[in-house]
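Section 5.1 Outputs to date
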Amino acid sequence: MSQTFHYLIMAEHSMFQKELLAKLRDTGLTIGQPKVLDYLKDHDGAGQKDIAHGCHIEPGTLTTLLNRMEEKGLVERRMMNGNRRSLYVFLTDKGRAQLELVTEAFSEMEAEAFRGLSETERETFMNLFLRIYANTSKED
């Protein structure tokens, strides 16, 4: 196995996605939907542009994801303040129930990932990883 950063990050992402979908297989959620639910946990009522940006998803891809999530009754899109050009996305009760399962799965997976590391090592890793994220993201 290659020890390069790019290889490890891609391999970990692939393994994380597979494990997440396995944990959530009985929920009917598909790739991308857990990330949107997790984003809405802290940003319920967000605009679609903000969700796309926050989840690193192309706007067209997000529209497809939200259409499917709306069909499943997980989210609803509403106008606010009479603004017909902007729709805001809200979790439904069913979406909140699915979010609980997603949150539990993420917590279990993070606990497994950090198994054997001290709290100090975990904090150090997260601080370094946040710096790497800031270096590679397009955000100011």
